[in-house]
């Protein structure tokens, strides 16, 4: 192998004659590591003949058995980005000690999902984190990483925008680590999340805020709960206007309802912010009637449809006026201005306040102010 190595390197002009002589005379770990880099460079350049490639691959298979970690590390670092490395060489390096394995684990696309699963199951946190940092992580690998139950590994995974994390795996992350800030913080910062996951995350975060308010400030539990409810509802409704992954509105509404968070004010907030679909679905779930029936009752030109629907859904009568006014604005928007939420909200506030025969100062013109007035008008 040493003779073939020297011939190959001289022929490819990756080593001078005196370099080869030094390697032959003094095959120290340092010189062998240098040779590993040189052979890898020639291999990576892609200019080898078929025979030369075979010689290089034979050299690699010899070097992965080298007793010196320095040599194997040099080989791993040099070959990690090359998609043409023989699979057995890449896998052997990836299963080596951490110092050798990490470059290959984090960067090599010669490794299959099966290889990565084996590493997850047989290696430790350092190797698992390297997998979590890969440029792309398949949904299968992402799920396996969450199953390690290691919060540091999962934190690295959810921080990686290149990770393909399924809805079910996101839910698993929240089940296991939702109360861990090291995970919930990077999770909340992802560019896109399934809407149901976002809603659960909002709830978990707002519960922490409530505990903080009560522990740091002199407020009653009732006041803290009111502040929490308002903040949580505002955050939940704000999610509806974003480009969320997997907007399963029925699943979202059922999730909120099952957790006793589908309040009248949340439903009205959603309508006032322009999400008619959420409003209709929420009424369908609360009233226990098909969505098509809800649609017909909401858009009924008579005076009793919406009132009866609200009564069936358990929503107080004083919310009917605002709902009717908001629905009129929604219908006008479809005919005129399209789906401009800012225009929608401005018109909605004006019409609802007119319907309630209310007045308010300009600086208070907001959905929050409107909701507070509705609550006081019970």
Brief account:
The chain is mostly helical and 378 residues long. It has helices at residues 2-11, 17-25, 29-45, 50-63, 69-79, 87-94, 98-107, 113-122, 125-132, 139-146, 151-159, 167-177, 181-188, 195-216, 221-240, 249-258, 264-272, 276-287, 291-298, 305-313, 320-335, 341-355, 367-376.
Structure characterization notes:
The protein starts with a helix and ends with a helix. The protein is mainly alpha-helical. It is built from 23 helices and no strands.
Distance between the termini: 89 Å
> How many helices?
23
Q: What Rg do the Cα atoms give?
A: 31 Å
- Pick out the low-confidence regions: 359-365
The largest pleated sheet is described as: none
Q: Return the string of H and E elements.
A: HHHHHHHHHHHHHHHHHHHHHHH
Q: How large a portion of the residues is in β-strands, by DSSP E?
A: under 5%
Helical amount: 55-70%
Number of strands: 0
From the spread of the alpha carbons, the general shape counts as elongated
Structural class: mainly alpha
Mean pLDDT: 79
């Amino acid at each position: 192998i040493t003779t073939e190595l020297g011939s190959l390197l001289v022929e490819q002009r990756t080593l001078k004659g005196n370099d080869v002589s030094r390697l032959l005379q003094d095959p120290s770990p340092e010189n062998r590591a240098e040779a590993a880099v040189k052979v890898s460079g020639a291999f990576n350049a892609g200019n080898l003949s078929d025979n030369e490639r075979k010689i290089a691959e034979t050299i690699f298979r010899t070097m992965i058995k080298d007793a010196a970690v320095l040599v194997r590390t040099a080989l791993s670092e040099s070959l990690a980005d090359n998609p043409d490395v023989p699979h057995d060489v890449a896998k052997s390096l990836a299963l080596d000690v951490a110092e050798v394995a990490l470059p290959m684990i984090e960067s090599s696309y010669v490794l299959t999902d099966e290889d990565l699963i084996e590493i997850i199951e047989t290696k430790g946190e350092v190797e698992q984190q390297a997998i979590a940092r890969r440029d792309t992580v398949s949904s299968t690998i992402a799920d396996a990483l969450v199953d390690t139950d290691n919060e540091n590994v999962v934190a690295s995974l959810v921080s990686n925008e290149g990770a393909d994390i399924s809805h079910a795996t996101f839910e698993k992350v929240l089940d296991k680590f939702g109360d861990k800030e090291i995970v919930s913080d990077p999770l909340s910062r992802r560019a896109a999340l399934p809407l149901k996951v976002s809603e659960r995350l909002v709830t978990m975060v707002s519960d922490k805020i409530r505990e903080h308010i009560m522990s740091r400030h002199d407020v009653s539990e009732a006041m803290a709960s009111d502040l929490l409810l308002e903040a949580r509802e505002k955050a939940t409704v704000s999610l509806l206007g974003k480009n969320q992954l997997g907007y399963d509105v029925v699943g979202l509404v059922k999730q909120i309802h099952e957790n006793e968070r589908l309040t009248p004010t949340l439903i009205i907030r959603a309508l006032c912010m322009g999400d008619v679909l959420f409003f209709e679905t929420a009424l369908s779930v609360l009233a226990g009637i098909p969505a098509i029936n809800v649609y017909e009752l909401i858009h009924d030109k008579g005076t009793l449809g919406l009132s009866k629907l609200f009564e069936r859904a358990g929503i107080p009568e004083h919310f009917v006026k605002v709902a009717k006014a908001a629905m009129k604005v929604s219908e006008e928007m479809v005919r005129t201005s399209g789906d401009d939420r800012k225009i929608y909200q401005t018109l909605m506030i004006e019409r609802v306040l007119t319907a309630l025969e209310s007045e308010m100062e300009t600086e208070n013109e907001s959905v929050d102010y409107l909701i507070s007035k509705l609550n006081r008008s019970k």
